[in-house]
Amino acid sequence: MAVRERGSGTLETGAQAITGQLGKTIQRLRKAYNLSLSDLAEQSGVAKSIISQIERNETNPTLATVWRLSQALDMSVERVLASSDDAPFVEKLTRADTPMLVSEDGLCRLSIIGWIKTVEWLQYYDFQAEPGGELDSDGHQRGSVECLTVVSGSLEVEVGGVIETVKEGETVRYRCDRRHIIRNRGPGPAHAFMVCLLKAAVLD
Fold first, then answer.
1. Residue 201 φ/ψ, nearest 5 degrees
2. 15 in a structural domain
3. Nearest-CA neighbor of 137 among 172, 169, 108?
4. Residue 36's Cα: distance from chain center in Å?
5. Are residue 74 and residue 109 in the same domain, yes or no?
6. At 144, phi and psi to the nearest 5?
7. Which candidate among 31, 38, 84, 192 keeps its CA 20 to 30 Å from the CA of 49?
8. Domain for residue 89, yes or no?
9. pLDDT-derived band of residue 18, with 50, 70 and 90 as boundaries?
10. Can you tell me the distance from the alpha carbon of 96 to that of 135, in angstroms, rounded to the nearest whole number?
11. C-alpha distances in Å from residue 135, one per residue of 3, 39, 49, 56, 164
């Protein structure tokens, strides 16, 4: 998932891009692949010093950084951020425990509220964007469909040259197996829920 920069960020500086488990997970996967910090830096394009800081939970990486590391480790972003599969069936996450990614421009954030056991076919997120925010994403696997429901404000969705404006209370569904962009062109913040169906039978 790529995010284009559109200037300095305005989200609160305390917004969390990682959970306390991210550093341990990155380190565990790196060692499982028998990779040194230098090896992972070369494969991911992320500086060795940044990876070291992430493993020690001393920094909050951007969405693009987590994406590059997940690709180098052959894992989805959701799996990299997920907690142990041994978690109990009844599970409650506080706001602080919910994995959150902040875009490079600092204007968009994705809270991963989906369940790790469904990430292969169903993912869902809480999405918030400040005015001017833009989330520019690469395509997911073939046949994937994303559903975006705007809770407040308005958002613009662009897929394959087609642009649709989605207002409060409205839902738009679109193919997300190709580049897709979500923008907030409104004067105020926008809030939406995103559901991604990775194996949408309707498009098989």
1. -60, -30
2. no
3. 108
4. 26
5. no
6. -75, 145
7. 84
8. no
9. very low
10. 23
11. 5, 29, 27, 28, 15
What sign results for the dihedral spanned by CA atoms 68, 119, 116, 19? positive
pLDDT per residue as tens digits for the range 37-50: 999 999 999 999 99
| Nearest of 12, 183, 2 to residue 106 by alpha carbon | 12
Quote the CA–CA distance of 189 and 103 in Å, as a whole number: 15
Angstrom distance (rounded) from CA 150 to CA 104: 22
User: Residue range 83-105: average pLDDT?
Assistant: 68
Number of H helices, E strands in the chain: 5, 10
How confident is the model over 119-178, as pLDDT tens digits?
Answer: 778 888 999 999 999 999 888 888 889 999 999 999 999 998 999 999 999 999 999 989
**Dist CA 43 CA 35 (whole Å):** 10
Q: Is residue 86 part of a domain?
A: no
Mean pLDDT of the chain: 80
Whether residues 77 and 41 fall in one domain: yes
Q: Would you state the pLDDT for residue 174?
A: 95
Residue type, 77: V
Question: pTM of the full predicted structure?
Answer: 0.58
How many structural domains are present in the chain?
2
Same-domain status, 114 and 69: no
Q: Return the CATH number at 112.
A: 2.60.120.10
